[in-house]
Amino acid sequence: MELEQIKSQSEEAESAALAALNAAATVSELERLKPEILGKKCPLRQLMKLLGQLDAHLRPAAGAIINEAVSRVERAYQDRLDHLREAELEKRLIEEKIDISLPPSFKATGTLHPLTLTVREIERIFVSMGYEVATGPEVETEYYNFDALNIPPEHPARDMHDTFFLAPGTILRTHTSPVQIRYMRTHKPPIAIIAPGRVFRVDDIDATHSPVFHQVEGLLVDVDVSFAHLKGTLTEFLHAMFGKDLATRFRPSYFPFTEPSAEVDVQCFACRGTNAECRICKGTGWIEVLGSGMVHPKVLENVGLNPKEVSGFAFGLGVERFAMLRYGITNIRNFYENDLRFLRQFQQRW
Ligand code: DAH
Questions:
Q1: Residue (of 197, 236, 233) closest to 217 by Cα position
Q2: Which of 24, 44, 52, 189 is 20 to 30 A from 75 via CA?
Q3: Domain residue spans in the chain?
Q4: Is the distance from the beta carbon of residue 200 to the nearest atom of ligand 1 less than 6 Å?
């Protein structure tokens, strides 16, 4: 056996080991290779067994050749291990990095209720005509709710069967009309307001009635306000709300706080008067949507205004009824039951 033979076998084993460790693509693959290329029985170390076949004086040199080769493989192994560990850490850091440029995943935040949407539409139309939005309390005095509005003590609406009494003289407001009184007591004409809000009546729930519902009151007071202003304003409003092609109609009516008074109808959007069996308008061709009238002189006097100097008109509407007409809803209960299958049909958020 020659030294040269040992040397070439050592080189061969070394380069096989180096090729193997360089081919390892992951830390665990490399670690699995370790016994094979650096273990006690690896080909390189096995060469030591051949030393016995050499002349004694050649053995130290041959041993040194093999040992140096083992050292190089060990160093290469360590370098490769460091490199792969670093690469894997780098990869993990990139994968686990929080990408703050991604949009957040939104929780369901809900959408606006159809009654809110309807009130907002009414507000939008009147605000565009220069009206302000006013509010008043839901717990009201009998005086503001009835007396100041010229509703006499014996009026049936004041009955316990109709009105929720909280204490003598204190009630849940039955309509939004008391906001008229509160506003006129604290503001001077010209006045142009609408007052949306919740109202309460002793009523059993059915398809069109609820003990809690919503109204929007309107009031305009200035010098020389006439019925023509009332008619023009409400016609404009109803056209904006329901479309210009539906006719409107004013019918004489009675309210204690207006004189003269009128109820306002809109042509039936479903049949336009062509179906005697129409369930929406009950075959009349018209749907009643508003109460209105010229503010009664007594009401003006009750708030300290002189009916010879100023005049005004007022109106009141039911929000549920408007929303039912607007969206084709036939049962008022839908508004209050919070059934998501109903509510999800209204996707507007603001
Ligand atoms: N307050 C009335 C009601 O609840 C509605 C109403 C009718 C209001 C005529 C008005 C009006 O301002 O002029 O039935």
A1: 197
A2: 52
A3: 3-95, 114-346
A4: no
